[in-house]
Amino acid sequence: MDRIKFGRALGYGARHAAKTLSQVAQAASAPNPSKAVAGTPPHVPVEVKTEVTSRHIPDVQTVKAASRQAKTSLVTPVVRFSSVVWLQVSGVFFGLVALIMGNAAWRARGGFHAAANSHPAEKLYACIAVSVLFTYFAVSSFVRAARR
Length: 148
Known about the structure:
Elements: H1 3-29, H2 60-107, H3 119-147
């Protein structure tokens, strides 16, 4: 994931979390609609005190909904980005091991001229096999990171 995609995802998550917190704050500061003054018709607005004497704590469902929305808008992009970085870092380490084993195979290339069951030939074949395996791991790790 490049830094532009990460910046967009992080910005979207931050905006979404701020919007959610704003909605929760507005819901918490709104008057309770179930407390109607007796004798007034429902279409006539009731005068609301401007002085706040006690804090209204939002209900459990509002807090749960806000936390779920914050998780999906803030935590999910960070988790996705960290998994992409993890795949790229592990791909680099796999590539380093493949490079080291390829270098060892190059130094043991004299094993091609030895008998197939001799030690230099077995060392060469093992180095080539490990190098090919770790090259596959490195390439597949970067391909998986590019897909996310």
